[in-house]
Amino acid sequence: MRHFLDLASWSDDELHALLERAGVLEHTPSTALTGRVLGLLFMNPSLRTLASFQSGMSRLGGSSFVISPGRGSWELETRLGVVMNDVAAEHVREAIPVLASYADLLGIRAFASGTDLQADVEDRLFHQLAALSPVPVINLESAIDHPCQALADWKTLDDLDVPRQGGRFVLSWAYHPKALPLAVPAAAVQFAARRGMDVTVLRPNGFGLPEAVMERARSAAAAAGGSVRESEDRGEAMEGAHVLYAKSWTAPADYGDAEAESFRRASLRDWCVGESWFETAAKDCRFLHCLPVRRNVVVRDEVLDGPRSVVVPQARNRMFAQMAVLEKLMASKEIAS
Amino acid sequence: MRHFLDLASWSDDELHALLERAGVLEHTPSTALTGRVLGLLFMNPSLRTLASFQSGMSRLGGSSFVISPGRGSWELETRLGVVMNDVAAEHVREAIPVLASYADLLGIRAFASGTDLQADVEDRLFHQLAALSPVPVINLESAIDHPCQALADWKTLDDLDVPRQGGRFVLSWAYHPKALPLAVPAAAVQFAARRGMDVTVLRPNGFGLPEAVMERARSAAAAAGGSVRESEDRGEAMEGAHVLYAKSWTAPADYGDAEAESFRRASLRDWCVGESWFETAAKDCRFLHCLPVRRNVVVRDEVLDGPRSVVVPQARNRMFAQMAVLEKLMASKEIAS
Amino acid sequence: MRHFLDLASWSDDELHALLERAGVLEHTPSTALTGRVLGLLFMNPSLRTLASFQSGMSRLGGSSFVISPGRGSWELETRLGVVMNDVAAEHVREAIPVLASYADLLGIRAFASGTDLQADVEDRLFHQLAALSPVPVINLESAIDHPCQALADWKTLDDLDVPRQGGRFVLSWAYHPKALPLAVPAAAVQFAARRGMDVTVLRPNGFGLPEAVMERARSAAAAAGGSVRESEDRGEAMEGAHVLYAKSWTAPADYGDAEAESFRRASLRDWCVGESWFETAAKDCRFLHCLPVRRNVVVRDEVLDGPRSVVVPQARNRMFAQMAVLEKLMASKEIAS
Fold first, then answer.
1. Residue C336: pLDDT over 90
2. B282 Cβ partners below 8 Å, 6+ apart?
3. Inter-chain touch B51–C65, beta carbons under 8 Å
């Protein structure tokens, strides 16, 4: 029985098969999951993930239910061994096996704590949650990964014929009024490296991704014929770029220190992607973002409303990538049982 | 490809076909939307619209998903060109095309701003939102219209054999502790006029519907053989009435001036519909209200619990009217593609 | 047409048929409710009930919709005859018939008021709500009953081969930081008595269940060949027990007096179930709880994580028990119509 917790647990052949199947599902109906039920546990808000999983599951002939702790369901405790005399009325040690007992597959979203960098980089909470489920688990975004997003992003680049080996992928930090998680940038740098691209992480001082994340990306790049480097110089980083993937994230250097982090971010409001960023890029350099995105804070209207933005097809690909994953996990469960 | 934004864009023949189909769907199963997905975007609360669309879509063999910004999904920005450094994390310019990309049809609810009468009467926001969707859009209530309600109301009067030409329809303002939108009264006066009825808008001073709304209703009445007039005199307005449609709405005369509007409303608590209102009406005059309704504030128990109230069958007709619309829009989309 | 408001309205033969059918549905697919729609009205939070009914309805080929007043839908008024000038925008007298008009079956959750013991013990509100529905109603937990839980609990004991006559069932009060409803303990004592077991209610002074609840249980026990008694002595109560069913509940002696109740509860923190409680019990005594449960407040980790806890299979049985009820009510409706 397989889970879908990260791309790293899936071989190149398996990922290519998922991508190929996603392309087929984009154009061809399937009733592979007729009568099957997907449980969706959202510890944090969602728009795309919620809508695309519910729609995708329906399109495969199945159905889904949604549980949102604190929004019509009990607040959930995740810490082990605690005396639960606070707001949480239920523990994940009961909630997850119970929800799994009603479902054939279980999706879980649990964002980072934002306080313990080591724990978050190791995705400790998410692995603890996933281990509680007797049915296949899909990571709907954890502390350090968002594999459904990464698979959709990969398909998006394939759809656009962006080169694999030799393709230049820039992941750029952008300003945001809040300290945001590391999950999407970690997933993006990992999938682009694994796709064989030449990856540059463009970010201000203090915003370098955690060494463990960079090391995983460098290993993936080495195996795939690509490369990974970091830069603070926008013009140099963007030179010849085929893809600019923008995202804000919290400063790992100040992880868990909200005041210091906020102070570091405060002076970086000019990290808002505009057309001028693309001067040294390849002519048809694409703009990607996982959404939601704050207009004229993270990226200017001129980019989002212009021809290089592919954020809507990128989001649309979430559905097809996830449908391929749902089919595959269900098949793996049936073989196991 | 058709949208369902208002009744005005639909010809008499088309409306009659929808009403006829709604009547058939009330008694005959259909699987016309098997495998189809309806996206529902609720910027404001709902009970009937949510339940009737979800149930109706299921009864047609399809399914639906629900997104409620600020309730498990990101707050959405609707203004163009703004710097998004406030609470809204996502713009409708991304959210709507993305949700539409997961759906075959998209329903949107977006109430009036309540501050700019001209913009609300022109339904500027809603038309801007609808224009962002590449799939057919259904108006689940906008600033100035609620066509699903109007179609259900029309069916309700047909079901009850209320006369078209010569039928006397009174839309009456009623007291409510809050300033409520103009959408339902505007939709009601419009559909009743278009149905060929003699329409009276009964309301206190300052609560006359906007001139553009009245003018549209007068045009519709002229074409259909009916009439539209206004009155402040309850006994006179109700004379010979076949239908009393009650609804509270904000004072257009004080639009956007909460204090003045509240002061004007404060002395009108006697505008609570009771049996005494029907003294001069036709013998079996019916009581309609779109719901939700505040008992003994908008209307007394004696009316709601008495034989003239048809508010439950009226609400039930929402489902059948909407099922006819869903089928029709899906067919129009398939022809277009 | 049948409702499922309590177990008392169902004969032994009928209950046994439901339990048998639940066992079949655990292993065999059914499409008995294809095209049918279940409405779910939650006046209070839920995790298991929401997920198990949505999944169960899907597994039977049908679908469901969820309305949560105050969470995306209007607050509902339940009192009769009031002037609705407070927060509630809609009355259950409209909301329930309307939701029922979109559904084939209607589930309703409405917890106790907690202020009027007599009204709550008689389940006055719930019977008033159920009477408003023209379609079969399922009690998703009312002031004094939770028959879906009781049916699932009964199946759980059957699955484990816990003896009926001669089986020793202990319902124990446990500490909790909040005053909790009487519904689950009332349902548990009733089903265990009806199953023919020897039932002991173990609870501190002031926490004795209402006399009407005890009397109903004693009658059921008399008819089924079992017994019902009360005790404050843990060691004595647990002697030879086959089942410990733990649950916190408010002190009936202080019903509606929050301060006195809180004071009475404050000194009872040692009523947290631990392994030491089982010293005099039967060797393989099982631990049941309806969930959600506060770990190390109501029960220690050592029990929940040990071999005697069956809380997850117990929760899983909710789905199969409810599927049997859904099928049965739908069949009864079709015969009636």
1. no
2. B168, B240, B241, B242
3. yes
Q: What is the pLDDT of residues C267-320, one digit of tens each?
A: 999 999 999 999 999 999 999 999 999 999 999 999 999 999 999 999 999 999
Q: Which ipTM score applies to this complex? A: 0.97
Describe the strand order of the beta sheet including B105-109 as a list of residue ranges.
Answer: B63-67, B37-42, B105-109, B137-139
| Residues of C in Cβ contact (< 8 Å) with B51 | 39, 65, 67, 98-99, 102-103
Does residue C337 carry a pLDDT above 90?
A: no
DSSP state of B140: S
**A93 vs C305: CB contact, 8 Å cut-off?**
yes
CB-based contact B56:B323 (threshold 8 Å)? yes
Q: What is the arithmetic mean of pLDDT over C3-26?
A: 98
**What length does chain A have?**
337
The tokens describing A141, both together, are 């975004």
CA–CA–CA angle A167, A170, A173 (5° rounding): 165
For residue B36, pLDDT beyond 90: yes
pTM of the model: 0.98
Q: Which residues of C touch B71 (CB under 8 A)?
A: 71-72
| Residues of chain A neighbouring B85 (CB-CB closer than 8 A) | 177, 294, 297
CA distance C283 to C239: 11
Q: Using the beta-carbon criterion (under 8 Å), do B319 and C98 form an inter-chain contact?
A: no
CA-based nearest residue in chain B for residue A323: B102
C-alpha of A141 from chain center: 6
Q: Three-state SS for A231?
A: strand
3-state secondary structure of A92: helix
Across the interface, do B316 and C102 touch by the CB < 8 Å criterion?
Answer: yes
Q: Which domains does chain A have, with CATH numbers?
A: 12-146+315-336 (3.40.50.1370), 161-309 (3.40.50.1370)
